[in-house]
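>> received
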Amino acid sequence: MIKVITERAIPPGFDTSDDAQVATHCRIAVDAMKALGGRMHWICSYVTDDKLFGVVVFENEDDLSAYQRGAGLQDQAIKVHRVTRVIDAVLAR
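>> returned
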């Protein structure tokens, strides 16, 4: 499995403070992942003032492209950052 962080601009008109809009956005993502038959898992997403960052795990890079098409994201500029290591406070000595 490959873990990545996706980065993209918040789509025009998407109000991330509106629960109904967020629910619709999430449904589109979940449906696109379901179509992949479990080959992709959305861990979580983070919203900043101007970007959406998602943490996702998938089997291969083709699955990420298929997800983007299924979710209607193929026309959006999405940066994909492959996670090579997780670092957190439990590693402190």
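>> DSSP finds two helices and four strands in the chain.
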